[in-house]
Design goal:
Layout lengths: L1 H11 L2 H13 L7 H31 L4 H8 L5 H10 L7 H13 L4 H13 L2 H11 L1 H24 L8 H4 L13 H36 L2 H8 L6 H9 L6 H13 L4 H13 L2 H8 L4 H24 L5
Length: about 325
Amino acid sequence: MEVWNFIQNQILGMKWLNVIIGNLLSRLGLDLESRLGGSLQFFFYDVIKIFILLSVLIFGISYIQSYFPPERTKQILSKFRGISANIFAALLGTVTPFCSCSSIPLFIGFTSAGLPVGITFSFLISSPLVDLGSLILITSIFGLQIAVAYVIVGLVLAVLGGLLIEKMGMEAYVEDFIRSAPAIDLEAESLTRRDRIIYAKEQLASTIKKVAPYIFVGVGIGAAIHNFIPTRYVEALLGGSHWYSVPLATLVGVPMYADIFGAIPVAESLFAKGAGLGTVLSFMMAVTALSLPSLIMLRKAVKPKLLFTFTVIVTIGIIFIGYLFNACAFMF
């Protein structure tokens, strides 16, 4: 237990980094008990911690991804049938792009290749919602139990969402140009270890460049909530005992656009201020899976009825998950 606490607090949570930043700010004459000093400590600590963890994770995940180009992934997915295909597609989403807008091109590619729409939607739901990066970051902030539970319910939502869409016969509501696109059967490129390292570096640079603005904004909002908004206001609005807190957090999250790394610092601050566990997780899920930019992109590939069905299924799932975590918060 002591070993795990050390891993969670000092390796994943990097509490030593918070101490170093606090000491540096104190030497510069800042009072860490003041709103400004506390906000700056929160901001620098969270930004540096997230970028360190993110860099390690993206490099490692991208290296793994180099073994599974889209054409090879399509071939593997096509071998599965029924619920096992949805489960595999959801699991595949855990090692693919970190935001919904990045997932949609792959979703379109899988759909045009002839994969059933239910399977591709399991992938689309899982990809931005549940990934190895979110598991590590949520563990560093909320602990391993909550992180594992979050990943499990996210995967369940992805599998059930895909199955529902398939059972409702939504194949006809994919845009015609997607369904009629010619399938391209390519041989999986043989890469050397050096090629894979170069690919991982390129993916790291590209992803960092893309997500950096959202991390800065997310941590900035988190720092403001953490040090400027009184606890009683957050508890009154988003406390786990209020029935409306989960739907409210979900609706607030939809218009926003960020990846999981930008949403986590906001959720961390809300939780520290007294928001319900399920409430902040619902907010995170809505931001990452139902952002307006991703829905607009998805509309280019599917017809309004399918887009509406997808949105309703995921929204109801997120709200249910939020209530479930609020009810079971005592277990964590």
